[in-house]
Design a protein that fits this description.
single chain; 73 residues; alpha+beta; 1 helix; 4 strands
């Protein structure tokens, strides 16, 4: 999946972990904006933003799109 301002990079999987994790990265600066990971209580992938990050509607839509597709990746 390609997005205009952000990209998702799969993080290395530890042996004890059953699910995948992705870092949400700013394409321009290369900074980490947050992590997508499994939240067992809700039985779905969720986005965990880094503190003090600011989000536009467009970026939030991209994250929402990624979350909808994460189970199939």
């Amino acid at each position: 999946m390609t997005y205009e301002y952000i990209e998702f990079v799969e993080l290395p999987k530890r042996e004890s972990r059953k699910t995948k994790r992705w870092a949400c990265m700013n394409k321009q600066s290369g900074g980490c904006l947050g992590v997508v990971k499994w939240y067992g209580a809700w039985r779905q992938y969720t986005f965990w933003p880094e503190p003090c990050t600011i989000w536009s509607v467009g970026c939030l839509n991209d994250i929402q799109d990624f979350l909808k597709k994460a189970k199939t990746l």
